[in-house]
What does this fold into?
Amino acid sequence: LTFVVLGSLIIGKGLFIWAFTRIAQRFWEFEASSSEVMTLALAAGIGFTVSLFVASLAYAPGALQDGAKIGAALSLIAGPMAMVYARMFHVGRWSREIDSTRRAVLQ
It folds into this structure.
């Protein structure tokens, strides 16, 4: 159950946020690259508070509840994953650093 909760939070939330953002871009005009959307989707995979609350309501105290809570706690790795992804694909602050380096080289 631990890995089901973890996968649901990171992969499930990330996939649906990415997909629905892409669908929304067809109806409303806003610019967001795939890398930017994916970085936000990964960061949204942190499902700590609500997941812990739901796990405590959904399962009786014991092994299942503990596994669900551990999975929710492990979802905190989504934050560092989003930072690594952003750095790899030059999103946000890292894109500005690269642009300023390019400008310095070109001058």
